[in-house]
Design a protein that fits this description.
- With 271 residues, this protein is α/β, with parallel strands linked by helices.
- The protein has a single domain (3-269), classed as Alpha-Beta Barrel (TIM Barrel).
- The chain contains 13 helices and 10 strands.
- The protein has helices at residues 12-15, 20-29, 38-48, 61-64, 70-79, 96-107, 118-121, 131-140, 164-172, 188-197, 215-222, 240-247, 256-269, and strands at 3-8, 52-56, 58-60, 66-68, 84-89, 114-116, 144-146, 178-180, 201-204, 229-230.
- Helix 3 (38-48) packs parallel to helix 12 and helix 6 (96-107) runs parallel beside helix 8 (131-140).
- It starts with a strand and ends with a helix.
């Protein structure tokens, strides 16, 4: 079994709900090709031999009018419940309402994690305004997936995405499972150090063609972080077929590819 812990719901319906400037930037990223349907996601999974994938909601309405709703995520999961796993979005600026929405997304909609993008919220992960969401997620026993490292959203600041901020969160919430997306590039040494010292922090390789992953990251996946590394695609930014094919070319030690693509994601997601 191959489990993708990080992909996007960039269907036409989702992107049409974005602010106009952001929608244009996404269209440019796809080079004005037709936006993928959810059927395209399933087809890409089938072609790559990926059994299940996480799709994520996004809520940054307060700062950027940007939202992929939890209801849309849940409706999409309901179409392919044996293939898709939904993560909720939450806007920390909404305070108690955000916590209530997260609880609704998990308890009523059946979503199984929380996705946060600090650069879209204009708040660093260790900002105390984030803590009520962490407390809610801890109570719901769901993992929190953070965008970390570089990003391409117009009008946002990369500094909010430094992985070092996650160290404070991990220490203050040792029972909260935290996933550092994209291994924190360009601060990947810093990110790997945060993962190494905190038992509750994981990282994924989403958004990276495996042949371009820095050698130090591969060494850590082969070594002390073999039980903390997670397969992820960030589809449709990259096709899973390319990622899976390039993984076969990397110098993984025996059993490490299985940990990365299957065993570790299963433990994180409780599968």
């Amino acid at each position: 079994m191959i489990i993708d812990t990080h992909s996007q719901l960039f269907t036409a319906e989702a992107i049409e709900s974005f602010p106009e400037e952001m929608a244009r930037s996404y269209q440019a990223m796809f080079r004005n090709m037709a936006l993928p349907t959810i059927e395209d996601t399933i087809a890409d999974m089938d072609a790559a031999g990926v059994d299940r994938t996480v799709i994520v909601g996004i809520d940054a309405e307060t700062t950027h009018r940007y939202k992929v709703s939890n209801d849309l995520v849940a409706q999409t999961v309901a179409r392919f419940p044996d293939r898709l796993i939904g993560f909720a979005g939450a806007d920390p600026h909404k305070g108690r309402l955000a916590c209530d929405e997260l609880a609704r997304a998990v308890n009523e909609l059946g979503l199984r994690g929380l996705k946060l993008l600090p650069h879209l919220a204009d708040i660093a992960p260790d900002d105390r305004r984030m803590y009520p969401l962490y407390e809610t997620a801890r109570g719901l026993k769901i993992p929190v997936l953070f965008h970390s490292g570089t990003q391409f959203h117009a009008g946002t600041k990369i500094r909010f995405c430094r992985p070092l901020y996650l160290d404070t969160v991990a220490v203050d919430f040792p029972d909260l499972q935290i996933v550092m997306a994209h291994f924190g590039y360009p601060w990947f040494h810093e990110g790997l150090a945060v993962v190494l010292r905190n038992p509750n922090v994981w990282f994924n390789i989403a958004g990276w063609a495996p042949k371009r992953i820095p050698e130090e990251v591969i060494r850590q996946i082969n070594g002390p972080l073999r039980y903390k590394a997670l397969f992820g695609s960030d589809y449709p930014l990259l096709k899973r077929t390319r990622i899976v094919a390039e993984l076969d070319q990397l110098p993984f030690k025996e059993g490490v590819r299985q940990l990365l693509t299957s065993d570790n994601p299963k433990r994180l997601l409780g599968l």
